[in-house]
Amino acid sequence: MLRSRIPFYLAICTTATFAVAPVAAEGEGPVFSVHVSNGVISPSIIEVPANTRFKLELHNDGATPIEFESIPLRKEKVLSPGASSFLIFRSLDAGNYAFFDDFHLDMPPARLIAK
């Protein structure tokens, strides 16, 4: 009885694997790096192309956790000390967008300027 079910299970697993396979991604566009060390964001002003897909790499160079937070961009990401991650922006209207380290509110915010 078990032998007759094995091909059926394999067919389901194979179908499921193909159904969840990722689609090839289109070009990422430009990449910008942000380094944060204990609340200090560098660079504090980043100019990015408006209406263009881009990647923002985040690096926590400090000894404490950080949280990239931007209310106007509706993005947030927590990074432990020494960790790196990224955010993808599909398209951003021209404008000036503030972001900050939500775990170090005593430090000044940085700006993402889309032109």
UniProtKB/TrEMBL annotation:
Can you give the residue ranges of the EfeO-type cupredoxin-like domain? 12-114
List, alphabetically, the SUPFAM superfamilies matched: Cupredoxins
**What Pfam families does its record include?**
Cupredoxin_1 (PF13473)
Q: Which residues cross the membrane?
A: none
For this protein, the record's InterPro entries field holds: Cupredoxin, EfeO_Cupredoxin
Q: Which domain of life is it from?
A: Bacteria
Name of protein = EfeO-type cupredoxin-like domain-containing protein
Q: Which organism is it from?
A: Rhizobium anhuiense
